[in-house]
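Page 42, continued from yesterday. The earlier attempt failed because a stray header line got pasted into the input along with the sequence. Redoing it now with the clean sequence only.
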Amino acid sequence: MARKRPPSKKTYPAPFSVRLTDQERAELTRLADGQPLGQLIKDAILQNGVRPPPSRKPRIQDQKLLAKLLGALGQSRIASNINHLAKAANSGSLPSMKKCCKACKTPSRPSAGCATH
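This time it went through. Structure tokens are written below.
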């Protein structure tokens, strides 16, 4: 008859430690009023909503700068031109480097004087 193993013990993550000055620890002890300090800290942070709000939005200064940049990009034709180039590259309709160099009769390596490159 096979012997069953006892259920495994519940495992916990490694403890989290915080360094406090003597004054900070005394203040926490006073606030705890006999309650364990770990419990006081967990209650203060997790139950009373003291968690910092998640910051998913960029800072306002960055947001304004981004809006300005995107506005300038929208007014220029750069985004449209890049999109046209990407479509041509994906469809295979852009000329290859060798064809391009043959057309302008230069070596396959582009030179500074080649207007095509």
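Notes: Residues 16 and 38 are 10 Å apart (CA to CA).
Reminder to self: strip header lines before submitting.
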